[in-house]
């Protein structure tokens, strides 16, 4: 039938639309109202189909954006977990040094038994910290663009806010704050010994802490270094520090802080894993 021809013209751009209008005008002049009705149906169907195609394309693009956003955020969270595990392994490695410091300072007569240099090296290391925090870049970008809804529903967004915002006060307040102890040890220890430890005793910089952290039954020990050729100086300084009662109080505080830090690391690691599970469950 002649008046069915415009159906093919709906998707042919401007020429197709011009032909539809020409056919419509001709049908009206000829009072062919059936053809007029059919032309209108074709036009309306074309518009509806066009909107549906646009909506489908937009939906597909949004789904792709959501997949990418979730993948980036999960990757970011997994990097956080790896960082936390490395820090925990490091602080576990400091535990042996903490035990040495407290053993001597709580019973100074054990200094000769435990070793003067061993005590001094541990005293210095106990004041070392390795700060950490979450990587918030991906989350803040999504938040700034108003795209957090791409990640999941209200429950997922609430979990994300809890992870990225609620933990912030913990950092710098209850975590890795050994400043009073650190300052006193460094004030009382001669620079010659501090420089020696800094330049020679590099065992605290193990290349792959994450590999150590991956072993659930790990026992991490930061390797010790040999004593410098300063026997008289070592004996004098070790004796002074071992009898410093104020330093003992600060050492206890530093050890308690280290244990708190490890507890926070365990909790925030669990929280990150829980958030990942919620994000992946929302896909």
Automatic annotation (TrEMBL):
Keyword Transmembrane: yes
Transmembrane portions of the chain: 33-53
The entry's keywords: Membrane, Transmembrane, Transmembrane helix
Highest taxon in the source lineage: Bacteria
Protein name: Uncharacterized protein
Source species: Marinicauda algicola
Lineage of producing organism: Bacteria, Pseudomonadati, Pseudomonadota, Alphaproteobacteria, Maricaulales
């Amino acid at each position: 039938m002649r008046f069915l021809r415009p159906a093919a013209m709906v998707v042919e751009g401007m020429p197709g639309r011009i032909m539809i209008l020409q056919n419509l005008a001709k049908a009206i002049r000829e009072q062919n109202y059936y053809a007029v009705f059919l032309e209108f149906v074709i036009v309306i169907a074309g518009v509806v189909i066009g909107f549906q195609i646009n909506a489908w394309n937009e939906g597909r693009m949004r789904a792709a954006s959501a997949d990418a956003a979730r993948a980036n955020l999960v990757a970011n969270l997994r990097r956080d977990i790896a960082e936390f595990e490395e820090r925990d392994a490091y602080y576990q490695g400091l535990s042996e040094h903490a035990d040495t410091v407290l053993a001597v300072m709580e019973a100074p007569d054990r200094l000769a038994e435990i070793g003067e240099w061993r005590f001094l090296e541990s005293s210095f290391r106990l004041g070392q910290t390795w700060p950490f925090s979450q990587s918030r870049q991906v989350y803040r970008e999504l938040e700034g663009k108003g795209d957090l809804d791409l990640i999941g529903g209200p429950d997922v967004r609430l979990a994300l806010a809890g992870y990225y915002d609620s933990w912030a006060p913990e950092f710098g307040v209850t975590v890795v704050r050994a400043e009073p102890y650190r300052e006193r040890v460094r004030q009382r220890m001669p620079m010659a010994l501090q420089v020696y430890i800094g330049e020679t005793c590099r065992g605290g910089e193990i290349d792959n802490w994450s590999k150590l952290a991956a072993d659930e039954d790990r026992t991490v020990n930061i390797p010790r270094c040999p004593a410098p050729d300063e026997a008289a100086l070592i004996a004098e300084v070790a004796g002074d520090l071992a009898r410093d009662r104020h330093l003992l109080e600060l050492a206890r505080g530093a050890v308690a802080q280290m244990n708190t830090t490890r507890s926070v690391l365990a909790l925030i690691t669990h929280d990150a894993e829980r958030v990942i599970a919620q994000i992946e469950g929302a896909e």
